[in-house]
Amino acid sequence: MEYTIKAIAQLSGVSARTLRYYDELKLLKPKRINSSGYRIYGEAEVDRLQQILFYRSLDMKLEEIKKILDQPNFQITTALEGHYRQLLKKRASIDSLISTVEKTLRYQKGESPMTDSEKFEAFKAQKVQENEATYGQELREQYGEEIMKQSNKKFSNLTEEQYQKMNETEKNLISLLRSSLSADADVSEVKTKLVNLHKEWLFYTWPSYSVDAHKGLAEMYLVDERFTSYYDEKAGKGATKLLAEAIKESH
């Protein structure tokens, strides 16, 4: 079956404007342009749009989606299996949050006790799931399955105080990165502090620390745009490069 751009927009819930934008990006090209100049979409384009929406539901950037879908060995069944696993993880995370809200309601009403640890379990579990979805595969390739398991376990077992200190350390790191990007900043004076703050932050999740592992992570920050965007989006463009270079220069 074939669809005009208006028909596929109604079918999918994606606006015609967005579909035209996908065409400009070469993310979703129409099957053909008819004699009247209208974009016509076929079954293959419908399937590709569905894949795009699956990946978008995982907050993946359009550029990254295009790279995945354009791979010569891309298979829809394999992609669907991956989507299914990610959605199951997301459902588990939502169920955990719902459970925490229910426990908190009972606690606030005086109906049942709730430990400080229980108040934060769901949020930590959600963070683990988000990190797994975004960086899991690359980190496993870099450090191995066992290290990742130990890291997730260490993070999940953080006390409330440790969890708050970890977040505060990251805030301080991002704040220092942001100020270091200003035109009048003397970067040479803050590089050591940047590295130490980053190292302190890592200690909350890394089962053990090594200089080589730290430098390896710095290299990943530079070569993988998903890692690069983490600090660039929080502190400003160039923040990730500044941090990575500081880490490599300090050892």
Automatic annotation (TrEMBL):
<dbReference type="GO" id="GO:0003700">
    <property type="term" value="F:DNA-binding transcription factor activity"/>
</dbReference>
<protein>
    <recommendedName>
        <fullName>HTH merR-type domain-containing protein</fullName>
    </recommendedName>
</protein>
<dbReference type="GO" id="GO:0003677">
    <property type="term" value="F:DNA binding"/>
</dbReference>
<dbReference type="InterPro" id="IPR036244">
    <property type="entry name" value="TipA-like_antibiotic-bd"/>
</dbReference>
<dbReference type="Pfam" id="PF13411">
    <property type="entry name" value="MerR_1"/>
</dbReference>
<keyword id="KW-0238">DNA-binding</keyword>
<dbReference type="InterPro" id="IPR009061">
    <property type="entry name" value="DNA-bd_dom_put_sf"/>
</dbReference>
<dbReference type="InterPro" id="IPR012925">
    <property type="entry name" value="TipAS_dom"/>
</dbReference>
<feature type="domain" description="HTH merR-type">
    <location>
        <begin position="1"/>
        <end position="71"/>
    </location>
</feature>
<keyword id="KW-0010">Activator</keyword>
<dbReference type="InterPro" id="IPR047057">
    <property type="entry name" value="MerR_fam"/>
</dbReference>
<dbReference type="Pfam" id="PF07739">
    <property type="entry name" value="TipAS"/>
</dbReference>
<dbReference type="InterPro" id="IPR000551">
    <property type="entry name" value="MerR-type_HTH_dom"/>
</dbReference>
<keyword id="KW-0805">Transcription regulation</keyword>
<keyword id="KW-0804">Transcription</keyword>
